[in-house]
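Design review, sub-item: ligand-bound model
Attendees: FS, YL, KQ
YL presented the inputs for the magnesium ion complex:
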Amino acid sequence: MESEVSRLRAKSEDFALRPVAALESSKINLVSENPVFMVRDLNFYYGAKLALSKISMDILPRKVTALIGPSGCGKSTFLRCLNRMNDTIPGTRVDGQILLERQDIYAEGMDVVTLRQRVGMVFQKPNPFPQSVYDNVAFAPRVLGMVQNKSQLDNIVEKSLRDAVLWDEVKDQLKTNALSFSLGQQQRLCIARVLAVKPDVILFDESTSALDPIATGRIEDLIADLKVNYTIVIVTHNMQQAARVSDSTGLFWLGELVEFSPTDQMFTRPKEELTEAYLTGRMG
Ligand SMILES: Nc1ncnc2c1ncn2[C@@H]1O[C@H](COP(=O)(O)OP(=O)(O)OP(=O)(O)O)[C@@H](O)[C@H]1O
Ligand SMILES: [Mg+2]
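KQ shared the predicted structure:
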């Protein structure tokens, strides 16, 4: 795999330094705030197959970080490393470090349930439980024992639905089965479900790709609202979306982080030839 990347970067002599170069570019944003996630030299294996190689990246608080790159380059694998969702896949292995607020999430004794509560995930296809709107949002706060009584639970459900900009559409139908709503509404319900457990970080893995343009626009607006309070990482195949909603963008290629730059810079003056080739459709 590395030889293929090397070939694509044919003219670069400083190949071995590139992960560091990617990290350096992230420091452009690091003037005032500590990163939420610090990823250092992360390798990830499915059995013998190396799916992520020497990834180093800082993810900043209350910013949107977009991850782009061709199919199979490791974007979802990387996202799932951030809340250890890959742990459920047999035969996988991680080395390197991921620090969440300076705590190693792969260290022994890390409580994975707490980690996944702090780092929530919204998937490609809306996946509400086949239950009422209310029960979908109330599920995790109930399981995690976050509430003492019904009125506290009602408050969490309402606040989460309001923050997901869904409340006005469902407030009179809280007992209606979630599956009877539109896909865009279901996806906002899934976001409300994540918000209900008060996460720090929300990961979106191509979460608008199943939606029509209007529903997509509403989720993009919502992401812009949410970043006031949350750290957000999105994976997207939609370059315009990355350009519209993100502050920093990372380009993955064959399991490596080719470039990680402020989004405006990435889309106007990419540092790497491969980035330019990908963004202009010449590659990938
Ligand atoms: N459960 C798995 N077992 C083995 N290999 C896997 C598994 N999931 C992903 N892979 C492999 O790891 C590599 C990265 O896959 P990943 O799904 O992270 O890519 P991606 O960038 O998210 O792609 P896409 O844009 O198509 O979603 C691919 O080669 C893929 O085939
Ligand atoms: Mg993917």
